[in-house]
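ZP: hey, is the zinc ion complex queued? I don't see it on the tracker
AM: it wasn't, my bad. submitting now with these inputs:
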Amino acid sequence: MALHLPFRYLEPTCFAGLLDDPVLWVKVRPWGRALLFDCGQLHHLAKRALKSVAALFVTHAHMDHFMGFDTLVRHVLVSPRVFDVFGPPGLADKIEHKLCAYDWNLHERFWCTFRVHEVYPNHIQKWIFPGPLRFERQPDGVCDRSDRTVFANRWVRVDAQQADHHIPVLIYRITEQPTFSLDTERLAAAGLAGGAWISDLKRQFYRGRLGKESLTVTQSYAEGGGLLEIADTRRLYDMVQRRLVSLSIGYMTDIGYSRHNEETVTGLLQGVTLLVGECAFLADQVEKARRSCHLCTRDMNVLLQTLRPKYYLPVHLSKSCGEMSQKLYQELHPPVGTTLIHLPERLLARPLLPCEVRLGC
Ligand SMILES: [Zn+2]
């Protein structure tokens, strides 16, 4: 289900119903590629949707979040590229076991390589599985984490934090990168006029060169219309940029309700534009939620008061709540300013019950 929300770059699509295994596909429009969050059931996704995936972000390796990995491998295998997979500690072992389950004697040198990033609180451990070498696992180094970012390009940034689900689980925030945009009033107030220097400033912005190269700007007529050499172009841009809010998506599933998780979720996801968040149980199933380390509607209501997303899409309702989804929406009370988005119970066809099968012609 495509979600038509006010993003500049991001196009989130939920390929799962409320009771289906969660899978969120986020197209990054100017890039022409997509990021995939969890991969429970994928067989129903169009081949072009799977082929467009540039990186996979796994929350944890419970079967309902990870069993579609084989389907993904099948679709991206025959392409000479590096495919990045992010997930919690231990994910490389699980991917190795999956890849070892097949015979690769017919491998080709142009097959893809999987690069796995195991996200720990203070570092990222990397492994590669090169297709040309029959996906035999090799270490690919360790990098320290100076911030929460695990993936970034010109258009999008993905931050991750570890929460608890009796096992480590990652929660993600996908944020649109700032665009170059000038405020004409602030430009005039700074005594500057337009000119070719703006293209140079834009080039510095997108190449990460702000503050590293000087620039000659044109002063406005009121300031004499002369040329002025600016050494600190980062400060210059701060002074004249149009202030835009960076829109973002939070993806959070399978966490227990605890003080630690609440602090982690708040630290990463407060103020997201769209929260795609698990709500596995109804209020009267709180004991089940505690036992299985999931959230119920009562927990979600508390979290929403702090997170205050603009839109909230509940996902991953327990299959034991089938036919009771209306109760979920009745029990959720988002704060003023948060719009609740409804999903159909199932986007995937379920098997027919015997009583639904019509015999004869
Ligand atoms: Zn789980």
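AM: back. Residues 10-178+245-340 form a domain with the Metallo-beta-lactamase; Chain A fold (CATH 3.60.15.10).
ZP: great, adding it to the tracker
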